[in-house]
From TrEMBL:
This is Nucleoside-binding protein. One of its GO terms (cellular component) is plasma membrane. Keywords: Signal. Residues 1-18 form the signal peptide.
Length: 365
């Protein structure tokens, strides 16, 4: 009996230790598969615009999926600098990395090749790899809507546009905005000034002031801060923001903003990666995905703008209104898109010319 008792006791101990070991291994495997998401930002999260909008998406991701995130602010658009930030994030345990600025592309692509086990997502570029995808949104849809507001508001028929860099992303936004202006005001023009920077509040303000001095009474922008909004308010003219709702920054000037809502995209993408269903590709979501929107019109917006914007917004949603549909002419009057023809996504994505109604030139590379 004693021998049987000893045998049974040993058996119990063996199974107990085995169970602990299996539990420990399972826990270890779970920890190994734990998701940590890194975000690389071109500006500070307090810029009130572009980086702020992405960071709101990051916080939404944490809330919805409970994943841990890390981020790095004000990273230079330099290959070596981006690679350095990526290595640091991987050392901290990041398994997914989002690079949120066009100029991060080269560094992210190089890092993706070095780390095939890490998933990379790049915002607004064109390069992909097996473990690196691209993402952006059809903000030009919202540019068109804000153009309607500007076209209805201007008295001088001169609208100023503070633009960052002469890349297709910015060019198609200017063109879409101008088409919106022209849809309600054939006499208005849009004058463009380049700053060649994403984040420089002082330079953006100066560019806006130069446009105001040139009789522009509505100012809009493709910049990362609210500098142009503040310039408009200081000079007693009106403005349209970008990236996030900028009404609080310039309450006496701002009429609305074309805004990003990155949260749903970040949740969807990270969940796909966690589920093992993600595949590299190019995402370009529109109003139907909720990734782009227009901020509520403020009290300084023209009275008839709300109805016009709501109608155009519904028409975009239904497909009745297509932003880049011919006839479209360039600044020289040359026909670029024939009457009734719709531009393809590739043609819109790579747009490298200004349409009729835009004043200013695109610097040669």
């Amino acid at each position: 009996m004693k021998k049987i008792a000893v045998f049974l006791l040993c058996a119990v101990l063996i199974f107990t230790f085995a169970g602990c070991s299996n539990s420990s291994n399972t826990q270890s495997q779970k920890e190994d598969k734990k998701v940590k998401v890194g975000f690389i930002y071109v500006g500070p999260i307090g810029d009130g615009g572009y980086t702020y909008a992405h960071d709101q998406g990051r916080l939404y991701l944490e809330k919805e999926l409970g994943v841990e995130t890390i981020y790095k602010e004000s990273v230079k658009e330099d290959k070596a600098e981006v690679e350095k930030v990526v290595e640091d994030m991987i050392d901290q345990g990041a398994t997914i990395i989002f690079g949120t600025s066009f100029g991060f592309q080269e560094g992210l692509l190089s890092s993706a090749k070095k780390h095939p086990d890490i998933k990379f997502l790049h915002c607004s570029g064109y390069e992909t790899a097996e473990n690196m995808g691209q993402y952006f949104g059809k903000i030009e849809q919202m540019r068109y809507l804000t153009g309607i507001v500007a076209g209805l508001k201007t008295k001088t028929n001169k609208i100023g546009y503070v633009a960052a860099f002469p890349i297709p992303e910015v060019i198609r936004g200017i063109n879409a905005f101008t088409l919106g202006v022209k849809s309600v005001n054939k006499d208005a023009t849009v004058k463009v000034v380049w700053t060649n920077t994403w984040y420089d509040p002082a330079k953006e303000k100066d560019a806006a002031i130069a446009l105001i001095d040139d009789k522009c009474d509505v100012i809009t922008q493709h910049q990362d801060t609210a500098g142009p909004q503040q310039a408009a308010e200081s000079r007693g003219v009106f403005s349209i923001g970008y990236n996030s709702d900028m009404s609080k920054t310039a309450p006496k000037a701002n009429m609305t903003s074309a805004v990003w809502n990155w949260g749903p995209y970040y949740v969807k993408t990270v969940k796909e990666i966690m589920d093992g269903t993600w595949k590299s590709g190019k995402y370009w979501g529109g109003i139907e995905d909720g990734v782009v929107d227009i901020a509520p019109l403020t009290q300084v917006a023209p009275e008839n703008a709300k109805e016009a914007v709501e109608k155009a917004k519904e028409d975009i949603k239904s497909g009745k209104l297509v932003i880049f549909k011919g006839p479209i002419k360039d600044q020289t009057g040359a026909l670029k898109v024939e009457d009734g023809k719709t531009m393809t996504d590739d043609e819109v994505w790579n747009m490298d010319y200004f349409i009729e109604g835009v004043e200013g030139s695109i610097p040669k590379k």
